[in-house]
């Protein structure tokens, strides 16, 4: 048997020109709509009755399940990378590794914390003014005096107090005697006392931001960042005994108030995260550089920014 061979007639010049024009038009349309994102519209009922509900609407088994799902959704919207860092992780990267000089370790963490607190203060520099915060206050102290290097007491506004703290820390970070960066240079004898003062002043700034500007931090989406910086500060001061017992208790209470208690489970959306969600909603009454590597930004003159995750 022989198969019949089907032969197509040759394409004429007019047909070829028509196909070419079609390809040109399709190419122009593709180029025109290539960057557009088309969204499928939801189906709407054509009925004019307001009480008629769509039959395709999914039903929830009970009100508790609906409430649980809404809680997970609202909770996941608040969580970010800072919330994924658990307390045992903070304790692990704060503990002194074997073979490392404790002063080197303290210098690295202290100046990294200074960079973080400086960024938080810069973000609220336009919101914390002498009109809103006439005096510096933080948990445990309603009116704080700034004591300069000569021992003189100054009653400043909150922003002026934090400005003095940032200027003091910035000046100290560039001191070769306190934070040596050149090979062969040693730490000064008063290094530990200086570190204790820096940590205490950073706690004052963080305590003021968390207790007086918690709503503003929420609007800037900086609550998780502030809570993580506070937890890091509390863990470092506890590990190396940098704060007195009163300040250590105050900062521990503040961390327990503003930081979710069960971060890992709340990040995965477990059922046990409802307590953490309620605790998180309670309102309390730039890249971090290393001490020898990256210079810190200008003191409170950088553009305020909101660092979100």
Automatic annotation (TrEMBL):
<feature type="region of interest" description="Disordered">
    <location>
        <begin position="261"/>
        <end position="292"/>
    </location>
</feature>
<feature type="binding site">
    <location>
        <position position="213"/>
    </location>
    <ligand>
        <name>Zn(2+)</name>
    </ligand>
</feature>
<dbReference type="InterPro" id="IPR036703">
    <property type="entry name" value="MOB_kinase_act_sf"/>
</dbReference>
<feature type="binding site">
    <location>
        <position position="128"/>
    </location>
    <ligand>
        <name>Zn(2+)</name>
    </ligand>
</feature>
<keyword id="KW-0862">Zinc</keyword>
<feature type="binding site">
    <location>
        <position position="208"/>
    </location>
    <ligand>
        <name>Zn(2+)</name>
    </ligand>
</feature>
<feature type="region of interest" description="Disordered">
    <location>
        <begin position="47"/>
        <end position="69"/>
    </location>
</feature>
<keyword id="KW-0479">Metal-binding</keyword>
<protein>
    <recommendedName>
        <fullName>Mob1/phocein family protein</fullName>
    </recommendedName>
</protein>
<dbReference type="Pfam" id="PF03637">
    <property type="entry name" value="Mob1_phocein"/>
</dbReference>
<feature type="compositionally biased region" description="Low complexity">
    <location>
        <begin position="60"/>
        <end position="69"/>
    </location>
</feature>
<dbReference type="InterPro" id="IPR005301">
    <property type="entry name" value="MOB_kinase_act_fam"/>
</dbReference>
<feature type="binding site">
    <location>
        <position position="133"/>
    </location>
    <ligand>
        <name>Zn(2+)</name>
    </ligand>
</feature>
<feature type="compositionally biased region" description="Polar residues">
    <location>
        <begin position="272"/>
        <end position="289"/>
    </location>
</feature>
């Amino acid at each position: 048997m022989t198969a019949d061979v089907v032969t197509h007639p040759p394409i004429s010049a007019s047909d070829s020109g028509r196909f070419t024009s079609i390809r040109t038009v399709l190419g122009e349309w593709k180029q025109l709509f290539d960057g557009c994102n088309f969204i499928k519209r939801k189906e709407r009922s054509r009925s004019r009755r307001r009480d008629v509900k769509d039959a395709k609407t999914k039903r929830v088994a009970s009100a508790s399940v609906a409430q649980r799902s809404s809680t997970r959704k609202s909770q996941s919207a608040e969580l970010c990378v800072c919330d994924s860092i658990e307390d045992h992780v903070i304790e692990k990267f704060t503990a002194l590794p074997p073979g490392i000089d404790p002063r080197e370790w303290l210098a690295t963490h202290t100046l990294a914390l200074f960079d973080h607190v400086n960024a938080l203060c810069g973000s609220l520099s336009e919101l914390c003014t002498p009109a809103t915060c006439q005096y510096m206050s933080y948990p445990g102290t309603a009116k704080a005096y700034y004591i300069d290097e000569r021992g003189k007491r100054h009653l400043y506004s909150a922003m002026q107090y934090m400005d003095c703290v940032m200027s003091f820390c910035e000046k100290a970070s560039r001191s070769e005697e306190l934070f040596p960066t050149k090979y062969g240079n040693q730490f000064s004898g008063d290094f530990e006392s200086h570190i204790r003062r820096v940590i205490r002043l950073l706690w004052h700034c963080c305590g003021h931001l968390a207790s007086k500007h918690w709503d503003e931090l929420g609007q800037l989406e900086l609550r998780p960042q502030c809570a993580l910086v506070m937890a890091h500060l509390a863990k470092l001061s506890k590990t190396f005994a940098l704060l007195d017992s009163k300040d250590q208790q105050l900062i521990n209470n503040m961390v327990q108030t503003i930081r979710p208690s069960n971060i890992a489970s709340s990040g995965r959306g477990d059922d046990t995260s409802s307590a953490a969600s309620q605790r998180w909603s309670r309102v309390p009454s730039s890249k971090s550089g290393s001490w020898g590597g990256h210079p810190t930004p200008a003191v409170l003159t950088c553009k305020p920014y909101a660092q979100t995750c």
